Amino acid sequence: MSLLSEFKAFAVKGNVVDMAVGIIIGAAFGKIVTSFVGDVIMPPIGLLIGGVDFSDLAITLKAAEGKAPAVVMAYGKFIQTCLDFLIVAFAIFLGIKAINRFKREEAVAPAAPTKEQELLSEIRDLLKNQQNKP
Q1: 68 HSE (CA, 13 A, CB side)
Q2: Dihedrals φ, ψ of 29, to 5°?
Q3: Taking the CB of residue 41, how many other CB atoms lie within 10 A of it?
């Protein structure tokens, strides 16, 4: 088997294609979640904590000199990123929890017995009644 045919067999396998689709959808979903956190969740949180924007917090290690930019440790961006992560993780947790609840509700509903099962139940009941009669 040639290298090209082996690669073709690998590339068109279901798992590889499924994984690629998952990565593409995940990247698109990531943009939605980022927008949700940045545009919907963070403004009220910022309002609650007094309008503090963590991303502006920084320590200047070395001032700008001529054309050389200042050396800044932007720890506020790190705090903001960690806060964003916690909010995203919690939102995903709630989403997965809701999905699992729906799955459990579907699984709890028992399937109706088939005709064969009903007939077997009737036969079992008839046999029990015959054994109980003297």
Answers
A1: 7
A2: -65, -35
A3: 17
